[in-house]
Amino acid sequence: MHVVNRVHDDPLAEQRLQHMLATLKPRDVIDIDDDGLQRLVHDSGGTHGHELRTGSYHRRGTPVIIFNAFRHDEQDLAAARKAHPALDTSMLLGQGAITARAGYYQHGPDWCQCQPAKEFHSIYGCLHACDYCHVENFLNIMLDLEWLAGAVTRAFVENPGQQLYKYDNQTDQICFEPEYGASELFVDLFSRQPDKYLLLYTKSDNVDHLLGLDHRGHTIINWSLSPRTQSTLVEKNTPPTGRRIAAMRKCQDAGYRVRVRFSPIIPLAGWRDEYGAMIDDLYTTIAPDVVTLDVIGFMSPTQMKAALDTSLFDRHALSLLDAQARLDRQKWGKHVFPHAYRKQIYEHVIGEIRKHAPGQIVSICNETFDMWEAIAPLLGDNANPERFTCCCGPNSVPGARLP
To answer: Among 118, 294, 346, 371, which residue has the fewest nearby CB atoms (within 10 Å)?
Structure first.
C-alpha cells in the first residue's frame, strides 16, 4: 500500500489512515511523492482514459491501493498539473472533489439526454471487477473527508436549486465501510439540511453500518441491479442478485428510500426470463420509489467484444453486435445496439415492472430523444425528456414528480 505524503499534513486524514491500516494490516506501507505516484501508476498499467475496460485486462486480484488527499490550493494544483500531466486524471493529483455532469451529451451521432448536476467524489477505482467498467487498475482513496464535507457544504450555497447529490459513480464507497467513515460523515451532513438529499450509489450488500445512522429521511440508497448470470459472470467480485435485494430490504426497513437502476442492461442469453424472475423477487421484497433503465453502451462494438464474454450473449444481440463492429465507424455514440432492439428491451422490462407496480416511476438513462418519444406511452407522466424524475436527477427527491 502507498501513501501520498500530503496525507500526513492533515491530522484527521492521518487518523483515518491509521484506522484503516489497523484493519487492513498491510505488509508494507510506502510513502510517495508525486514523482513516486507517477511511477506507481505507470507500473500498475497507467491511465487509459476509458479506452480499456476491466474485462479487457482480466483483473482478478485487489488493485493497487493508494491513500491520497485533496489539494486545497488552486495554484498548487496548477503547478502539479504542469509538472505531472500524466496524473491529471482519476483524482491522482488531489483534484476532482466535485464535478459537474452535463445535461445533453453528444456521443458521436447520438444526442442523449441527462440532467445537469454537481456530484462529489472521494475514491477513484473499485473493489468490484465488472467487465464493462472503465476504472483503472488502482484504488485512489482520498482521506481528508472533512475537507470534502466543507466543499460539499459550499456547493449547497453555490447551487441553491440542486437538491440531490450523487456519491459516488467512480467507486462503490460503501464497500470500504465502516472503517472509511464516509457514510457516517455524509449521512449526518445531509440529515441536517432542510432540502438536500444524499444519494449513495452501490452494488454492495455491506449495509449494516448504515442501519443505525440517523439519516432523517435525507439519504437515498440507489442499487445497480442485474439478473443472475450478469451479476455472477460479468460483474465479478460483486454480491449476486439475491444478496443485493436482501440488502435493499434491510435499508428500507431502516427507513431509507431505496431506488434501483437496471444498469447496465446486457442482453445475455435468457435475459427476458432472468429479468422477469429478478423483477418478481424485487417487488416481493421491497417497494422502490424510482427505477431507471440503462442499456449497456459508452463503448464501441470492438471495445465491447474485447471486454465481455460474448459467448454469454443472446444470439440475436450478438448478431447485432457483430454487424455493428463490421461497420467500423470512426466515432460511435453512447449506444451500440440499434434503436429498435433497445426499444424491445425497454418494452419487455417495463412490462415486467408494470405487472407488479402499475404506478411505478420509471425513467431511462442517457437515451436519445427518439427513444423518449418511442416509449412515451410506457413511461406515463414521466415521459418528458426535458424534465423527468430519475434515480439521480438533481431535483428527483422523495415526493417530487417533475413533469
So the answer is: 118
Give the CA dihedral 389, 390, 395, 400, nearest 10 degrees. 40
Tens of pLDDT along 63-96?
899 999 999 999 999 999 999 999 999 999 999 9
Query: What one-character-per-residue DSSP string does 325-337 give?
Result: HHH--SS--SBSS
Three-state DSSP state, 298: coil
Per-residue pLDDT tens digits for 19-60: 999 999 999 999 999 999 999 988 887 776 667 888 988 776
User: What CA–CA distance (Å, rounded) separates 320 from 304?
Assistant: 12
Residue 77: how many CB atoms within 10 A of its CB? 16
**Would you put residue 236 in left (φ > 0), alpha (ψ -120 to 50) or beta?**
beta
Radius of gyration of the chain from its Cα atoms, rounded to whole angstroms = 21
Return the HEC string of 130-172: ECCCCCCCEEEEECCHHHHHHHHHHHHHHCCCCCEEEECCCCC
Q: Which of 165, 353, 399 has its CA nearest to residue 261? A: 353
Query: Cα(284)–Cα(185) distance, rounded to whole angstroms?
Result: 32
Q: Output the CATH code of domain 2-83+95-382.
A: 3.80.30.30
Written as one string, the DSSP assignment of 8-45 is GGSHHHHHHHHHHHHHH--S--EEE-HHHHHHHHHHTT
Domain boundaries, the chain: 2-83+95-382
Phi-psi group of 91: left, alpha or beta (phi > 0 → left; psi -120 to 50 → alpha; rest → beta): left
pLDDT category, 137, cuts 50, 70, 90?
A: confident
Buried b or exposed e, range 312-331, using 16+ CB within 10 angstroms: bbbeebbebbeebbeeeeee
